[in-house]
Write a structure and sequence with these properties.
Order of helices and strands: HHHHHHHHHHHHHHHHHHHHHH
Largest sheet: none
Distance between the termini: 33 Å
Oligomer: single chain
Structural class: mainly alpha
Number of strands: 0
Number of helices: 22
Length: about 525
């Protein structure tokens, strides 16, 4: 009985971290849901204000993260290891886990249609559908999905990895990392609660953005395959379907079920990529990717600081609509991804950690754009998709990408495979995110203990509700605003966390220690804990 009581206590929720974010999110959903027309205006005002007034801040922040990563690779910390133990995973498995972390259903959508958006509305005042527009269309996706965005995961992940494996701290919350600078007395009170509430809301906003993109995609695929009319009811049914599937996996063996789903998803990804490459314009894909990569390297700094102050005095143009949105979207995932990468990187050096995150994920995603994106551009140029601009403008990006895939040989097989991939990717996304949110809102989790199943399912419902409201309000602009809004306050918290790494490693003299003397850091932190 005592053991049972103890187990219940360990699974007790943190009422502040559970109820406050849910009340805030659901209140916003109710208000927006009953005021859809007004909500669209609110969304436009919020998006324009944050991206217009703080474009410079997002650009400096993300480039600063990349600069931190470069310093960590080539500076005195590069050869330092996260703990004295041997790596938990083989190098191949470790890189595979990093690579697959970014492979979701929304990536398939963006890899197909994002380059064409840039052909229609290119940056730097370039004329639409011009040769220069096509050049930027193959360049900007590699920039948006490359080193810079991943540098946020990397810079934060180094801090978490140091605390996990060197200082031997159990870090699941942003407030714990902020204590490196602010101190335990500050972060153990209301300041810490506010930091963690912002983190939870940020994760919810980022996931809702992904759901708001992948749910319409799944619906359009169902329409194309079965001829069922697309309605909001279908989107709601999909959310309910995913919740039911996740409920089953939660109560019938989470790890085994999700592992099988992940393996199937990987085979589907490589199968779809291989098929489109084989039946598509292979030489064009390779040449265009090569040129796009060269253009990105040549204009990297130009894109990194582009805010369009003269071409768009209202600051609501290309960099705000695209680049700032992407940096905000990455930021909404940054803490969650940083903790995940840190957890799987025991025994790795700082240099290998940074290089793996910056390259493994980025290079993996670039393969999608090299195949999917270049197929779309080639098909449009050769008049296989003449209606694509009209479909994109009038029916949305989900309908447009389905139109692209229908132009492939054996379209029914392709659409079926991508529908299955979208469903599986959404299941793993929802499950992993709900697990993280449930973990953050649970008071104590020890050992192999998992947060309560009902807690995870409640977060799935919250995520689904917000995604549906965002879709009902106004599609792409609404989901973009979700990421921008929730990520903005997190940037300041991330600066504190990254600064905390350099502060505590300087105090620990970590960058100047050899492998045999690192045990002193653990002894020091144990002493600090005892004195608090």
């Amino acid at each position: 009985m005592n053991d049972s009581k103890k187990a219940v206590e360990k699974l007790e929720i943190d009422k502040i971290l559970y109820f406050f974010p849910i009340v805030i999110i659901l209140s916003a959903c109710v208000y927006l849901g009953f005021n859809l027309e007004k909500a669209n205006n609110i969304i436009n005002v919020i998006f324009a204000y944050i991206t217009g007034n703080f474009s410079w801040f997002y650009q400096f922040f993300t480039f600063g993260c990349l600069a931190v990563c470069i310093y960590l690779i080539f500076g005195k910390y590069g050869s330092m290891r996260f703990g004295d133990e041997k790596p938990e995973f083989s190098t191949f498995s470790w890189l595979s886990m990093i690579f697959t972390a970014a492979l979701g259903g929304s990536l398939v959508l963006w890899a197909t249609i994002e380059p064409f958006y840039y052909v229609m509305g290119p940056p730097f005042g370039v004329e639409a559908y011009s040769y220069e527009a096509y050049q930027w269309a193959t360049t900007y996706p590699l920039f948006h999905w490359g080193f810079t965005g991943n540098s946020m995961y990397c810079a934060l992940g180094v801090t978490f990895a140091y605390m996990f494996w060197v200082r031997k701290k159990d870090v699941n919350r942003a407030s714990t990392a902020c204590a490196l600078v602010l101190g335990d007395k500050v972060t153990s009170g209301w300041a810490g609660k506010i930091i963690d509430i912002l983190l939870i809301i940020s994760i919810v906003g980022g996931i809702a953005t992904t759901l708001g993109l992948s749910t319409p995609l799944a619906s359009e695929l169902i329409v194309a395959l079965f001829g069922i009319p697309r309605t909001l009811t279908m989107d709601i049914a999909l959310i309910i379907f995913w919740v039911i599937l996740i409920s089953i996996t939660v109560y019938s063996g989470l790890n085994k079920g999700i592992r099988i789903v992940s393996n199937v998803r990987m085979w589907l990804i490589f199968g779809i990529l291989g098929y489109i490459f084989l039946v598509g314009p292979k030489v064009f894909m390779l040449n265009n990717f090569c040129e796009g990569l060269g253009n990105m390297m040549n204009d990297f700094f130009k894109m990194s600081f582009y805010t369009e102050p003269f071409g768009n005095p209202d600051f609501n143009g290309f960099p705000q609509w695209w680049t700032i949105f992407y940096w905000a979207w990455w930021a909404s995932y940054a803490s969650q991804m940083g903790i995940y990468f840190a957890r799987i990187s025991k025994g790795r050096t700082v240099r290998s950690f940074c290089l793996a995150i910056l390259t493994a994920t980025g290079l993996g995603v670039w393969i999608f754009f090299a195949v999917f994106g270049n197929y779309t551009l080639h098909a449009f140029i050769n008049e296989k998709l003449p209606q694509l601009p009209d479909i994109l403008n009038n029916a949305g990006n989900a309908a447009a990408v389905v139109h692209v895939w229908e132009s492939l040989p054996l379209p029914t097989l392709v659409l079926s495979a991508i529908l299955l991939l979208t469903i599986l990717a959404t299941i793993t996304l929802l499950n992993g995110s709900a697990y993280t949110l449930a973990m953050l809102s649970t008071k104590k989790l020890t050992g192999e203990q998992e947060p309560a199943g009902w807690n995870r399912i409640s977060w799935v419902l919250v995520l689904g509700t917000l995604a549906l409201i965002l879709m009902a309000i106004g599609g792409l602009k609404a989901v973009q605003t979700s990421s921008v809004l929730v990520s903005f306050p997190m940037l300041f918290i991330f600066i504190i966390i990254i600064a905390g790494f350099f502060k505590v490693t300087k105090d620990d003299n970590w960058g100047n220690l050899n492998g045999k003397t690192k045990q002193n850091i653990v002894a020091k932190t144990d002493s600090e804990s005892a004195n608090i």
